[in-house]
Amino acid sequence: MKTLYTIFVILFFCCEQQKSREFDLIIRNGVIYDGSGEAPYKGDLAISGDTIVTMGDLSTDIGISEFDAKGLSIAPGFINMLSWANETLIADGRSQSDLRQGVTLEVMGEGSSMGPWSPSMIEEEITSQGIIKYPIAWSTLSGYMAYLERKGIATNIASFVGNGTLRRYVIGYDNRQATSDEIVQMQSLLAQEMQEGAMGISSSLLYEPSRYADTEELVALSQVAARYNGMYISHIRDEGPYLIEAIDELIEISRRAKISAEVYHLKASGSEYWSKLDTAFAHIEAARAQGLPITADIYTYPASSTGLHVQLPEWVREGGVARAIERLKDPSLRSQVLNDIEFEHGPDKILFVGFKNPDLRIYLGKRLDEVAQILNKSAEEAMIDLIVEDDSRIQVVYFSMSEENIAKKMAKPWISFCSDAGSFTNQGLFLTQSTHPRAYGSFIRVIGKYVRDEKTLTLEEAIRRLSSLPAENLKIKRRGALKPGYFADIVIFNPEKVSDMATFEKPHQYATGVAHVWVNGVQVILNGTHTGATPGRFIKGPGWEVRDKD
């Protein structure tokens, strides 16, 4: 009798152990790249709500919904370390050009941010709006992020606070050092935004008024961000002749403020400076060897994109774009402006991609030398007149980098990726402008061109640098990896078929090969098509957790 009872107990527990568990979704039979950089493995993944619950062999379990990923790869959602989706998400929250590459988190705020804004800054922002028009119902960065979340967005969002925005708030566009009282004011504004979820402090030291900040000011602001475990991230002061000095300034800020620091879109710009990249690597890696947490991000193209106005003399640009245009309109200054223009990149290497004035959009896709010839003017004269007529900085592409250097950067384990662009839908008002192909291809190009075609790095390493590396650098919890307990930001793709389709001539073309994407457990891409779902959230930085300790 005792033996029979024992057998019964054993059978009962065996049956219990084999009892099926039920989940909201099970993804089966995929090749899992978990974001660690370790070798992939075949397995299943179960999701309930917004969270990954378990992984492995789930053959005895049941999903309310089930998906067969046989022949496909599964990865954590990718992170865009430098996104300019701040306005494009207002116009269209689907974030299609990024989502269709597997991007599930947009990190914004390069040198300028969508708050904090004073009443006069709000007025200026409304006046300067381009093709995307929108009311401004917020004054803080956290208010803007909450606004987007309420409006509905498909991707998650995060942002840095721009030092240029803090300067505008406290100082305006004055080209001078901040006083001690002004630094205290900026520190107070920054502390408030860090407490509300900002990722850290950013700078864009090529542009006004950010570039008017000296090292001491940047250290003082970074010390506040460090108090909340944030990051300092920078478009450094120079990417050409003074690249190394600019790198060294960022390292100094990191050391003095005791803060992690990242270089936005690391590059050596201009063929005469391409050789400086190796020295830049050496300086960063020496700092890392000393324990300083220095990293960088890149986009995967040999051309950059910014305003045409950066080709103007510094004295013309002082005070911001509006002041520069006023000076360009002054006939008494025209000859001096023309005399002082020194193109960093030749007119044949400058491609027009964005005009505010609809009448000037006939020049989209043309280079400055071509347009100058059409207008029967010198390149200098054409540039001045176009900026005045457009009443804007004019968005252009600069062909200034080397493919060889991109391959070198791809090999560095501390480099993650960005688009440095908006996130678009290839229809409607977005087609009234051109753009850089990086908006549609920067991330999938990592997998297609540099992993599959050129074998510059392995797929598991590429996935790590697209996901867990930036998440760790940003100190974001429960994202950037496929692990039980992590949020279900998931990408399913075919590594043999992924391809960036966008070109400089025809940039508004979606990448191919990404079949399915989930954000916070909600499917937003199904069989390569957007579902219309908008589950994106405001992802708060580490300061959110320590705000009560301040």
Describe this structure in words.
The structure is a single chain. This protein is an alpha/beta fold and about 550 residues long. The strands form four sheets. Strands 1, 2, 3, 4, 5, 18, 19, 20 and 21 form a nine-stranded mixed β-sheet that branches. The longest helix has 17 residues, at about 1-20. The model is unreliable at about 5-15 (pLDDT under 50).
> Termini, distance in Å?
68 Å
**What is the radius of gyration?**
25 Å
Structural class, please?
Answer: alpha/beta
Regions with little confidence, pLDDT below 50 for 5+ residues: 4-16
Helical segment tally?
Answer: 21
Mean pLDDT: 94
The counted number of beta strands is 21
Q: For the record, what is the CATH homologous superfamily label of the largest domain?
A: Metal-dependent hydrolases
Outline type: globular
Key traits:
single chain, 550 residues, alpha/beta, TIM Barrel, 2 domains, 21 helices, 21 strands
Write the layout of secondary structure elements.
Layout: H1 2-18, E1 22-32, E2 41-48, E3 51-56, E4 62-68, E5 73-76, E6 78-80, H2 85-91, H3 96-99, E7 103-108, H4 119-127, H5 141-151, E8 156-159, E9 161-162, H6 163-170, H7 180-195, E10 200-204, H8 215-227, E11 231-235, H9 243-257, E12 260-263, H10 276-289, E13 294-298, E14 303-307, H11 314-317, H12 321-329, H13 331-340, E15 350-354, H14 368-375, H15 379-390, E16 395-399, H16 403-410, E17 415-417, H17 438-441, H18 444-453, H19 459-466, H20 468-474, E18 490-493, E19 514-519, E20 522-526, E21 529-530, H21 543-546
Parallel strand pairs: 1-4, 1-5, 6-7, 7-8, 9-10, 10-11, 11-12, 12-13, 13-17
Antiparallel strand pairs: 1-2, 2-3, 5-18, 14-16, 15-16, 18-19, 19-20, 20-21
Helix pairs in contact: 6-7, 7-8, 8-9, 9-10, 12-15, 14-15
